[in-house]
Amino acid sequence: MLNFDLTEEQIQIQETAKRFANDVLQPLIWQAEETETFPRHLFKVAGELGLLGITYPIDVGGQGLDRVSDCLVREEISCMWQSFASSISGHSHLATWPIFSFGTETQKTEYLRPALAGEKIGSFALTEPEGGSDVRSIKTTAKRIGGDYVLNGSKCFITNAPICDYVIVVAYTDQDAGMGGMSLFLVDRDTPGLVISDKMKKEGIRGSETAELYFEDCRIPAEGLIGLEEGRFPDVLRTLSIGRIGVAANCLGIARGAYETAREYAKERQQFGRPIGSFQGIAFKIADMVSGIEMARWMVYRTAWLADRGRPCDVEASMTKLLCSELAVSIAKEAVHILGGYGMMREFPVGRYLRDALVYETGEGTSEIQRSLIARSVLGFRSS
Q1: Of 98, 105, 128, 384, which has the maximum CB count within 10 A?
Q2: Contact partners, residue 247, CB within 8 Å, separation at least 6
Q3: Exposed e or buried b for every residue in 24-44, given b needs 16+ CB within 10 A?
Q4: How far apart are the C-alpha atoms of 50 and 154, rounded to whole Å?
Q5: Phi-psi category of 57—alpha, beta or left, where left has phi over 0 and alpha has psi -120 to 50?
Q6: Residue of 212, 230, 334, 364 with catalytic role
Q7: In whole angstroms, what is the distance from residue 344 CA to residue 334 CA?
Q8: Sign of the torsion formed by the C-alpha atoms of 206, 90, 111 and 301
Q9: What sign does the CA torsion over 248, 250, 255, 256 have?
Q10: Helices then strands, each counted (H, E), the chain
């Protein structure tokens, strides 16, 4: 029998996230978005509340909860402020999961535990100017020289790079081996040869800082190789699809935030002597919004449920990410329309929700990539 009730632990962490969003995040959003500056201290606050290590075991500093709990937290935070949700997503999954899964005990002690506590901020550097969706096209290399590795190359669109303490870098250790020759390295921010650009100016998710990275004969000790074993990137890549579930939850939060703003406006705004929500044109928009959100929410929960039970869910994760990202854009657009001229004013958040939602139709795997993966699974051959 299916049970759709949340557990007490899930409700508790959801309420913690909601209070954090309302009491801590909300007062900071305006200034952070206008200045495109992330309040670094928020990581420590979130870490103290247990919001950075939800799915990690207690013995490494996590909360030992499931992915449904993680999705609940992401939805609450994204509903309030996507920039913070984006920053902790990059930190709590991409910049920590490889260490947890494959790192040495020393690496876990020096990086994982402080990261889950919010004492260190991590970045994950994969994307390059010529290598995004096509991972094999990356150019960054790591050459073993004596007891060190020397990194050369560049990365772009790296979340948290301007504020990070360390970065996990994907680089070729054997270019002839294809993806099997890709390895992961822990590089401290102050390592000679690592240059972090000024933060990039973005249209969406403005409060989450992004930059380019340049590696110019950047020498790190061999102990910086995650797991002390080359060629681990394919193993990590298989876990990244699960990250799409969390991204979908972020998009769900954006959609909900836009919907709730539009709903309240439709109840309060008067035209022709009555609330605009009483007109069928607006009422039907609101009905479609909430119906889409409910559908997407249960798809997120089900995919997270599959992942928690170790069942294959790569295709479901792609479906969920595709659905939720496009739904967020659609609902945010409708919210802007419902608010009319106010929808374009910065004092109302719906314009921000729309800008943020558009990022996810491209980021974390484009809609086209998701459709290709889904089509391949049902048709049995690669689409072109």
Answers
A1: 98
A2: 89, 321, 324, 325, 360, 363, 364, 365
A3: bbeebbeebbeebebbeebbe
A4: 33
A5: beta
A6: 364
A7: 12
A8: positive
A9: positive
A10: 13, 9
CATH superfamily of 234-379: Butyryl-CoA Dehydrogenase, subunit A, domain 3 (1.20.140.10)
How far separated are the first and last CA of the chain, in Å rounded?
41
Pairing mode of beta strands 166-172, 122-125: parallel
Question: Which residue, 296, 281, 181, is CA-closest to 248?
Answer: 296
The answer to whether the 8-116 and 234-379 domains have the same CATH topology is: no
pLDDT tens, position by position, 339-353: 999 999 988 999 999
Rounded Cα distance between 84 and 182, Å, is 30
Cβ-proximal residues to 348 (8 Å cutoff; 6+ apart), any chain: 261, 339, 342
Tokens of 13: 């962490």
**Is 119 a known active-site residue?**
no
The pLDDT of residue 178 is 87
Could you please state the CATH topology (level 3) that the domain comprising 8-116 is classified under. Butyryl-Coa Dehydrogenase, subunit A; domain 1 (1.10.540)
Q: Which pair of structure tokens corresponds to residue 77?
A: 């935070």
Residues in the chain with pLDDT values less than 50: none
- How many Å apart are CA 362 and CA 28, to the nearest integer? 27
CB-based contacts of 298: which residues, under 8 Å, 6+ apart? none
Task: Give the list of residues 6+ apart from residue 193 with CB closer than 8 angstroms, or none.
Answer: 151, 215, 216, 217, 218, 219
Q: How far is CA 355 from the centre of its chain?
A: 15
CATH superfamily of 122-233: Butyryl-CoA Dehydrogenase, subunit A, domain 2 (2.40.110.10)
Give the tens place of pLDDT for each residue, 187-231.
999 999 999 999 999 999 999 999 999 999 999 999 999 998 888
Structure tokens at 37: 């500056």
Q: Are 67 and 242 in contact (CB under 8 A)?
A: yes
User: Can you give the pLDDT at residue 1?
Assistant: 52
